Amino acid sequence: MDDIAPLKAAALADFAAAPTLAALEQAKGAYLGAQGRFTALMKQLGTLPKEQKPAAGKAINEAKAELEAALAARRSELELQAALPKEPTDFTLPGRRRPLGRLHPLTQVTEDIVRSFRKLGFVVADGPEVEDDYHCFDALNTPADHPARDTQDTFYLEGQGRPLLRTHTSSVQIRVMEKMPPPIRIVVPGRVYRRDNADATHNPTFHQIEGLYVDRGVTVGDLKGTVEFVFREVLGEDVKIRFRPHYFSYTEPSFEIDFSNALVKRMGKDWLEIAGCGMVHPQVFENVGYDPEEWTGWAFGFGIERIAMLRYGITDIRLFYENDLRFLRQF
For position 249, which CATH number holds? Predict the structure, then answer.
């Protein structure tokens, strides 16, 4: 019994002083191995008188448990030290991580377009994809007999008020103007739906981005300058823009936007139609409670897939929706 405490103290000291894992294993063998000093002490238990064995056995087991716990703790410390760099390391430096994926090409183009608008002070607005007739058509001065309101052009849903899947993100401009007084400067990216058969250039669902600017004294010049800035940011500095007169029920005057650059020339064309735009129709302002005598504004919208196809030289819109990793990994 007198040997247990000194032997335990010596073992604890040797375990704590072991500088490496190998040295710790040697110390373990010296005390707890088959020929170890503490093992030899345990073997003497059988030579004690019967009445002394319980107390001695309990003391030996408690000491052995303490030694094994100290051994495990020291092993953890030495394993941690072995894992640390041998030379000084700056742990504040950026770490490395495995790439977990990449952004879809449509997402990349959308973010680039939005980033360009933000440079001009625009904010991003959002609205529901399931709309009603009023916000999608009526408030935008679209007459009841307009072809866009036909079931062959628009997806209508069952439900009260004849809900539909929005055909353009222009419905969001109505919702924003209903809630906010001028001035307004918003950009609205989002998914839209139209009854188009899927082919190389059409899809029943696609993405559109709309810009709206309302303030005092806004002119077509402001519209053209904004369009040129955004397209040059997204498609290159060599972009040229031209406006052609057109008709949209919610803008007056209205224009189609054509653009030209090296990408268009490579397609064997001089100009390519890319977007529609115009000054907001006075009736639209009246529908949302704005005074058209005080406020003017412009709006334009274009398809994000069209921009992405031009930017990356893609000839089939369906590639964006097939989820083929061979295609997506190129971006």
Answer: 3.30.930.10
